[in-house]
Structure formats: structure tokens, C-alpha cells
Backbone:
């Protein structure tokens, strides 16, 4: 009887472990390179950026002072997770994530609304912006 109980625990653990591995994958429509900008007359300081969402759940984003993206400010790296209209970015070395709701306008355009950000971030306002896919 004890052996059957131990076997049942092993099977249960393997089953639960398999469920954890089946968490939803990142939204594949967001994978790739994108560019965006904050409105110059918006709630937050103007910025433009290029980001790259990689299939392995990592991202890189470079911020620029100008819309032409010739004056870089800084580059950040981290992890991203996106599903069901919610995208969460965890920048390496930053305590709390930035959280956005998003809606795909088409395959090359996505609209975001910032709903939460780390208190050390440059803008604490809820703001929205549109990103466009970079092809080629």
C-alpha cells in the first residue's frame, strides 16, 4: 500500500509539473522589431524607441531623444510576457514591471495603454501609444 501511495505522489508531481510547463506562450504576433514614440504634447516627456521582442521571452529597447532616432538615450534589456491583451515588461535591474494593455490594429500596428510602471520610471501617468513593426 505504501508503495502505491509513493507511486501516486510521483505521478501527481509529474502531472502538475507538466501543467506548469504548459503556461500560455507569448503572443506570437508581437515577436519582432517595433518602433514607437510618445506624443510631443502628451502627459509624459517625449521619447521615441525601437524594441525587439524575441521568441525566448527577452527584449531589448533603445530610447531616443528625437523622432528620427539619431540621438540615443539608453538601451534596456529584460523579459517580456504577453497574452490576452496584457503585456508585461520586466527590465533587468528594475524592481517592478511596466504593464500595458494592448490591441492589434493589424499585423504591423499595435496600440498600447500603460496601466502600471515601476515608481522609478520616468513617467507615472497612464498613457497610450502606437507601435509599428519594422520590416527588413
Residues:
Amino acid at each position: 500500500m505504501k508503495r502505491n501511495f509513493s507511486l501516486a505522489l510521483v505521478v501527481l508531481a509529474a502531472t502538475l509539473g507538466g501543467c506548469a510547463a504548459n503556461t500560455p506562450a507569448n503572443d506570437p504576433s508581437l515577436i519582432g522589431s517595433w518602433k514607437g514614440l510618445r506624443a510631443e504634447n502628451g502627459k509624459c516627456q517625449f521619447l521615441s524607441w525601437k524594441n525587439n521582442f524575441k521568441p525566448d521571452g527577452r527584449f531589448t529597447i533603445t530610447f531616443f531623444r528625437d523622432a528620427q532616432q539619431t540621438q540615443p538615450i539608453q538601451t534596456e534589456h529584460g523579459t517580456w510576457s504577453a497574452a490576452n491583451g496584457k503585456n508585461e515588461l520586466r527590465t533587468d535591474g528594475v524592481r517592478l514591471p511596466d504593464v500595458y494593455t494592448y490591441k492589434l490594429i493589424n499585423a504591423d500596428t499595435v496600440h498600447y495603454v500603460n496601466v502600471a510602471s515601476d515608481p522609478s520610471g520616468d513617467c507615472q501617468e497612464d498613457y497610450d501609444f502606437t507601435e509599428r513593426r519594422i520590416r527588413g
User: Anything to note?
Assistant: The mean pLDDT is 81.
